[in-house]
Automatic annotation (TrEMBL):
UniProt-recorded name of the protein: M1 family metallopeptidase
Naturally occurring in which organism (per UniProt): Streptomyces narbonensis
Keywords assigned: Aminopeptidase, Hydrolase, Protease, Signal
All copies of domain Peptidase M1 membrane alanine aminopeptidase, residue ranges: 323-459
UniProt entry tagged with the keyword Signal: yes
Length: 464
């Protein structure tokens, strides 16, 4: 699966085609409360307890995972769906080359057959779970890192395990979300939860990961890294002989930089400067970054893939002129903190992250809508789903969601006025903090910020 990320160094350029128990105060915006996930979105408040052992170079990880969850729906919950997104590119594999992510020995329910190209596993619960009650399922996990340069793949001696960990799928008023991995963009839809992931690995491997990590000595020659993350939608880690450095922003966010030996020093320094400045700026603009620390994992050989955001960790293709670090950090708010269905509404994170990036750099946008020219087709619209883009409209995804979406938000700022737009966006983030947003919710927030009828604006910008 590939994605595209915009970056600017120093001009905006296009990167190559290519991220419970109630949440504690530490995972919230100070002075605000998370908007509750709509009751129809279930199972919610998930907790993931994972213990995995890695082999000599981090290519294989085996262990066990337990997922606990609550039924937030008024109707009894009879089954849950586990998504194995790491199988998206490879499907069900072959007898001599099985899928990269496999589960087995399920407890707490009865597993059915793998579906959706072996990316979905339905587990029937032993008894219907009533509203508000909790249950859990456990299963063995075996992960083999694919031989490709990718967010779930290999980069020389380095391994990246993005979208590798099985996650709970969501069902809501639209039904079960069992969308396919279409090979570009993101198809993922998860609810914020808590993770405790214990990774037993060779001490020679440096292992950046989502959350706050503590390390202790394990068996001879091995280290046990325990990462705890609260209020996040996914968990990612990497493994390899990374070099590293940590800095703290003036706003108090710890940035942990990891890079491969060939990553240029100029790019590392530039990424760190932009990361320090942008995470604090976005915190002031949208609400304080809630996780305390953020990992930057950098390599100069990710050109066939690019950059990718995950909660608490961003994967960066870093050249001497830097990377898309600002765009990926903006995603910590738009998709990470303000969640949404990434398959149904890709614009709600990509357009917003690109808009935030252009604000950070102060890019001129006064004529951006006119500069875009005609729409690429009569059916193109900002609010199309990944199903539309996968059905013969792939180029529109890159032409519409990023530049047109960001420009529409700049135009909305001109419509509302700068202070009103800033206030509206901060309120929108606050109201959906660690929850799930929709296009309709955003349109309501924008309309509430002005006495003007925004109907003509939505129609002109094809925000349907």
């Amino acid at each position: 699966m590939t994605s595209i990320r915009y970056w600017r160094a120093p001009l905006l350029a296009l990167a190559a085609v290519l991220l419970l128990v109630p949440h504690p105060a530490s995972a919230r915006d100070p002075g605000s409360s998370p908007a509750p996930v709509p009751a129809a979105a279930t199972p919610d408040r998930p907790t993931y307890d994972v213990k995995l052992r890695g082999d000599a170079d981090g290519s294989h990880w085996t262990g066990r995972q337990t997922v606990s969850f609550r039924n937030a729906a008024r109707t009894p919950l009879r089954s849950v769906d586990i998504r194995l997104w790491g199988n998206g590119t490879y499907g069900c594999g072959a007898p001599d080359k099985p899928s990269p992510v496999q589960v087995g020995r399920v407890e707490g329910g009865t597993p059915g057959p793998l579906t959706v190209d072996c990316t979905a596993l339905r587990i029937a619960l032993p008894a219907p779970l009533p509203y508000g009650a909790r249950a859990s399922v456990s299963f063995d996990v075996a992960i083999t890192v694919p031989d490709r340069v990718h967010r779930f793949g290999r980069d020389g001696a380095h391994r990246y395990l993005g979208n590798a960990l099985p996650l709970l799928s969501v069902r809501d008023a639209q039904g079960r979300h069992l969308d396919p991995d279409v090979g570009f963009g993101e198809s993922f839809y998860t609810l914020a939860g808590d993770f405790r992931v214990v990774l037993d690995h060779p001490e020679a491997l440096v292992v950046p990961a989502t959350g706050t990590t503590t390390r202790r000595a394990g068996a001879p020659g091995r280290t046990v890294s325990t990462s705890v993350a609260r209020g996040v939608r996914d968990f990612v880690w990497a493994a390899g002989p990374f070099r590293s450095k940590s800095v703290t922003t003036p706003g108090g966010v710890r940035l942990n930089a990891y890079w491969t030996a060939s990553t240029p020093a100029e790019g590392i320094a530039l990424d760190l400067r932009n990361a320090v400045a942008s995470v604090d700026e976005f915190g002031k603009r949208f609400g304080r970054y809630p996780y305390g620390e953020l990992d930057l994992v950098m390599s100069d050989t990710l050109d066939d893939f690019g950059n990718m955001e995950f909660p608490g960790l961003v994967l960066l293709w870093t050249e001497p002129e830097g990377s898309a670090v600002v765009h990926e950090i903006a995603h910590q708010w738009f998709y990470g903190i303000v969640g949404k269905d990434q398959f149904a509404a890709p614009w709600l994170d990509e357009s917003f992250a690109q808009y935030a990036t252009e604000l950070y750099y102060g890019d001129p946008t006064a004529t951006c809508w006119e500069d875009q020219g005609m729409w690429p087709s009569e059916t193109a619209a900002l609010t199309r789903s990944m199903a539309y883009y996968a059905d013969g409209h792939r180029t529109e995804f890159f032409r519409v969601v990023y530049p047109r979406g960001a420009c529409a938000l700049h135009d909305l700022e001109r419509e509302l006025g700068g202070p009103a737009m800033a206030s509206m966006l901060r309120g929108y983030v606050r109201d959906h903090w660690l929850g799930v947003a929709t296009t309709a919710a955003f349109k309501r927030a924008a309309q509430a910020a002005t006495a003007k009828d925004l109907g003509p604006f939505w129609r002109e910008h094809r925000i349907l």
